[in-house]
Amino acid sequence: MLEFSRDGATVTLILLLVTVPAAASAEEGIFTNHFLVELHEQAEDEAHQLATDHGFDSARKLPFAQGLFHLYPKDVTPTRGRRSLQHRQRLEDDHRVKNVFEQEGFGRTKRGYRDINDIDTNMNDPLFSKQWYLINTGQADGTPGLDLNVAEAWELGYTGRGVTIAIMDDGIDYLHPDLASNYNAEASYDFSSNDPYPYPRYTDDWFNSHGTRCAGEVSAAANNNICGVGVAFNSKVAGIRMLDQPFMTDVIEASSISHMPQAMADGVNKGRGGKGSIYVWASGDGGSFDDCNCDGYASSMWTISINSAINDGRTALYDESCSSTLASTFSNGRKRNPEAGVATTDLYGNCTLRHSGTSAAAPEAAGVFALALEANPDLTWRDMQHLTVLTSKRNQLHDEVHQWRRNGVGLEFNHLFGYGVLDAGGMVKMAKEWKAVPERFHCVAGSVQEPRKIASDGKLVLTIDSDACQGKDNFVRYLEHVQAVVTVNASRRGDLNVNMTSPAGTKSILLSRRAAGQRLQGGLRQVAFMTTHTWGEDPRGTWGP
């Protein structure tokens, strides 16, 4: 089960300009006027003359074998359905020729920019062409190719079948004609009203439309001529209604998170038959005034924290930054174009083009993970995080403040975007061949227990030398998550800035100064800040500021 909260995030993707095999050619093959010939050794100097004698433009010597030449025609000629037996026979009869190979044609398609009408998706849903986060052709003044690369995953046959995404929000309009066929009632519950029907509470301003919009992003049905298409349009979606009340309680929150199966820490260890439930969390909408490492769920190692980008690769103005963010997807937040938002389902059978916030990004990530789980149902919660790190890409994501850097093992990351935008095609291909990661170990690197004072210049430097528990059963050789548990006495919490540098030299901003904390007094007590930026590094050595 995939679960995510109300606060979402977004990002963008650039497709690689490489070629992949297209559909098989006709039964008898497609043949060209290109020939591969092998000449006798004494005739290699006559290759050009041979080509001219037989009506070709010229011959190009091939570098990968002795005596091979490519004979190519003078003009671009149409392909044929039959072999040119006469042409081949004349070449074979030439005393200079040892072997002849007529070249068969194969279709190839680019993974880069493709016109949406050329993609073999055959979607008749009216908003599909406006879902730029699925296939970005430059709609709404966006950058062509900046998308989730779902088309490649779909073409490989992965649509989320067999996976359920549970949305913890203000309910789901499960009667919506674009959601009803994919609604999983058994996995749904209303913790606000304590009944099994998480339908949104009516308000005149449609305030409780959020969960329904998120549901459409992941599981809206395809080819039903209604609204748009979900990232994983054959997945099931469940509703966990828990945000629609004037206050939140520990009981409501814990019950919602623990619904099928247990609480979050137990969920990643016991859920899905021991493989672990996968929790997708939005990095938050506080913008530069806040820091998502202060969000206990976004900064948890048990969740996959997702941030957002808009359709030209920039950050949204509401994006929070932190070192716990693993990757990004898409949303809106700057563009005035009315179609630059996220197109999806809305309350009471309606559709919308205006879904936004990091709330619109996390559902997209959940949809991508559903595609990967269909490709390999045995993926554990840690496998999914590894796949996220290894297949996400920088593409054209950019920010004026936070630049892209590489960690100690060469992985490229950004303080805002994590390891980049999710690539659905790349993830399902890697997931299909993925072998489960080894057992997870936890090691306490060291600690500084005695109180230290911050100097007059406002700085305090602490270092810890760690052997990463070498020689013990819990020896850590390969980093995934690193936590720094911090206690600080301060008059204003928002003035604090905490940095950490790994032995490999990778710098993480664990906490940045934030206006949202200016009024909070008392500092921090045993707060665990987490970074994913050191993923894959060897933890042995000196950790510092």
Write the layout of secondary structure elements.
Blueprint: E1 2-4, E2 19-21, E3 30-39, H1 47-53, E4 58-61, E5 68-72, H2 85-93, E6 97-105, E7 108-110, H3 150-155, E8 164-169, E9 189-190, H4 210-219, E10 236-241, H5 250-258, H6 264-270, E11 278-282, E12 303-309, E13 327-330, E14 342-345, E15 351-355, H7 361-375, H8 381-391, E16 405-406, E17 412-413, H9 424-432, E18 464-466, E19 482-488, E20 498-501, E21 507-511, E22 524-531, E23 541-543
Parallel strand pairs: 1-8, 1-11, 8-10, 9-10, 11-12, 12-13
Antiparallel strand pairs: 2-7, 3-5, 3-6, 4-5, 14-15, 16-17, 18-23, 19-22, 20-21
Helix pairs in contact: 4-7, 7-9, 8-9
What does this structure look like?
The structure is a single chain. This protein has about 550 residues and is α/β, with parallel strands linked by helices. The chain has 3 domains: about 1-15 and about 110-430, Peptidase S8/S53 domain (Rossmann fold, 3-Layer(aba) Sandwich), CATH 3.40.50.200; about 25-105, 2-Layer Sandwich (Alpha-Beta Plaits); about 465-545, Jelly Rolls (Sandwich). It contains 9 helices and 23 strands. Strands 9-10-8-1-11-12-13 form a 7-stranded parallel beta sheet, sandwiched between helices. A 4-stranded antiparallel beta sheet has the order 4-5-3-6, with helices on one face. Helix 4 links the parallel strand 9 (about 190) and strand 10 (about 235-240). The longest helix is centred in the C-terminal third of the chain and has 15 residues, at about 360-375. The chain is globular. Residues about 1-30 and about 110-120 have low confidence and may be disordered.
